Amino acid sequence: MQSQLEQLEKNSSIEWQEYRLDELFGKSTRGRRLKSADRIDGDIPFVTAGEVNTGISAWIGNDVHIFSKNTITIDMFGSAKYRGYRYGADDHVAVVHTEKLPHHVVLFLAAAINKSSHAGQFDYSRNFYAGDADELKIQLPTVTQDGKQQIAFHFIKEFIATLNAERIATLNAYLTATGLKDYALSVEEQAALDGLEAVAWGRFKIEDVLVWQNNIAEINPLHLDALTVSAEKKYPFYGQSIRNNGIIEYRHLRDDVLNNVPGKPTILIHSNNQNIVYLDTPFYLKDGHGATTVLQSKNLNKMTAQFFIGSIKKVILQKYSYNAKATKIELKNTVINLPVKPDNSPDYDYMTLVIAAMQKFVIKNMVDYLALRIEKMRGFLK
């Protein structure tokens, strides 16, 4: 894929030039602060900050400024996102007015802004303020025509189309190779879904159904190089992040800092952002002063873990926040709902069937989407 994109760039005689956002789109706009207590339920997505739900913190009915679809928001962490819908925004969110440009160009611009804002300039210790947007500089492809440099919109279109085609082909090959295109429900899976309304539920403390893992090795990122055994990208190094399921990078470090060597099904819960991750491989963990809870159980597998994650998220996302963290002590006493058998013990078989059925529904939607995207790509490339 990289060679294809490089050849496309060469064929198009592309040069990369730096542009300020305000030179391209004029002054950015920001929304206004709307306290949680003042929000009225409605159908307008309200954008604040963060990766969860692409930064949409609520759906409101307040009288707020409505921004146009096909625009870009930049939040306080410098994260740029394409908005294909009308929305309201907090006063810490900058809105870049790209609404008159084609959809594929705006997607490209959002990626360029992300690359620029995350190049070490903005993070949790140095927030991105709405006023910073106008001075932000991005790299864009240009061509020289009649002695003048112009943004190469034709190249952007072909670049996005090439990426789309490669991603679609990869997804199609994966679904075919894994047999996931067969999404017909089994009799048992259909029965599990049909019985959802009649299922019996029980309340359990998390510590009664999952086991806290002790002696977990945590690593200061400054010590990574000293702990490195080889350049092989062997095991995931997790941090407290929502991006990429918390995986910072892959490393091959000393055995004494490796966790979960047998590769047991495991759930990680990060106290700072209540993010929950499933994994079944050995892993390294970033030092967070014990802020990440590591859970296992003899009844945990890929399917039951997803059920547990859903049940836990339903509770902790409402109960905890950055200022009221989901610490290990708090989590141990947190009560979740699980389906139960007649003896009131968790019904792990039922959890497995329900998740398997839901997975097939998701796959069906993906296959349908894939077919639609292939058809659209044909029209896009004409």
Structural class: alpha+beta
CATH class of the largest domain: Alpha Beta
- Could you please say which CATH topology of the largest domain applies here? Adenine-n6-DNA-methyltransferase TaqI, Chain A, domain 2
What is the strand content?
15-25%
Number of strands: 19
Q: What pattern of helices and strands is seen along the backbone?
A: HEHEEEEEEEHEEHHEHEHEEEEEEHHEH
Radius of gyration: 24 Å
Q: Identify the strand order in the major beta sheet.
A: 2-8-5-6
Residues in helices, as a percent range: 25-40%
Mean pLDDT: 87
Continuous helix count: 10
The backbone outline, from C-alpha atoms, is globular
Please tell me the total number of domains.
3
Distance between the termini: 21 Å
CATH superfamily of the largest domain: DNA methylase specificity domains
Low-pLDDT residue intervals, each spanning 5 or more residues: none
**Biggest pleated sheet:** 4 strands, antiparallel
CATH architecture of the largest domain: Alpha-Beta Complex
Explained architecture:
The chain is α+β, with helices and mostly antiparallel strands. It has three domains: 2-156, DNA methylase specificity domains (Adenine-n6-DNA-methyltransferase TaqI, Chain A, domain 2); 157-182 and 357-380; 200-346, Alpha-Beta Complex (Adenine-n6-DNA-methyltransferase TaqI, Chain A, domain 2). It is 34% helix and 24% strand. It has ten helices and 19 strands. The chain has helices at 2-11, 21-25, 103-117, 153-178, 187-194, 206-209, 224-227, 302-319, 328-332, 348-380; strands spanning 15-20, 29-30, 41-47, 56-60, 71-74, 80-83, 88-89, 94-96, 137-145, 148-151, 201-205, 211-212, 228-238, 247-253, 266-270, 276-279, 284-285, 292-296, 335-339. It has a four-stranded antiparallel beta sheet with strand order 2-8-5-6, covered by helices on one side. The protein has a four-stranded antiparallel beta sheet with strand order 12-18-15-16. Helix 1 (2-11) runs antiparallel to helix 4, helix 4 (153-178) runs antiparallel to helix 10 (348-380) and helix 8 (302-319) packs across helix 10. The protein is globular. It starts with a helix and ends with a helix.
